Amino acid sequence: MKSTILINVVWFLLLFGCVSQNELTSLDTRISELEFRNAEARKNSQLLKSGLENREGEEQALRQQAASLRAKMDTLNGEIRTLTGRIEEIEYQLKRQTQVDAESVTAKEEQIGSLAKTAKSNDNRIYRIEQYLNFEPSKQVTPAEKPAEDATATAVAPAAEAKQELPEDNIYRTAKLAFDQGDSGAARKKFEELIRRFPNSERADNAQFWIGEIYYREKWYEKAILEYQKVIEKYPKGNKVPASLLKQGLAFSNLGDKSNSRLILEELIKKYPKSNEAKIAKDKVKDL
Hints:
- This protein is mainly α.
- It contains 10 helices and no strands.
- Helix 6 (about 205-215) runs antiparallel to helix 7 and helix 6 (about 205-215) runs parallel beside helix 8 (about 240-255).
- The radius of gyration is 58 Å and the shape is rod-shaped.
- Residues about 140-160 have low confidence and may be disordered.
């Protein structure tokens, strides 16, 4: 293209006038510069166009990323609203549960108070029944229940009793205390020890009877019946025979053996008609 332009220019000049060599050289140089600038301009234009295209691509990618981020934000906001609602629901449930628990605690306290009163009433009732049946009391009698004692005798009695207490009395007291506290194993061992070491003791028949009571309390009625029978056979003149007959009759009743229960209770009524046990046996026979 450069050569064509130069030839055309030369012919133009030759047609309209003479041109010097220097002018041709200068003209050629300027044409070269123009071509270089034109090439540079096209190159820059191409670069600019390419840059614009790249920028448009980047802007498009940014717009897509922004749209994606907005979608994610919307999703997160929805989840936050859901969690907020759930938290409010849980807080309400906790407050409600706290209120219910408080009401439950109050109700339980009232129930415990009622049970305590019932237990106290039952203790008093058991104590009266034990006195009625000539049993040793299972609980310590409160000062209000005890008869008034002489002050001087009360002060002297503990020291005298401590000196005169027999080994068999100590064993019996320990066994009875364990029985009252619900420690059946320890109580049974101590009662058996008393019978083994002091077979002729005045407390031996009582110890044998309480062994039967331990099995009765454990609902081992067959074993209880056998232990009560030992009281009847070994200590026929003891004060625990009527009670042993009564408990034998009750044990047979608990086993569902109404026939033997009736026979034993009728025997009790016949042999000890004036005893308190006989009065209880009469009412039980009517039920049978």
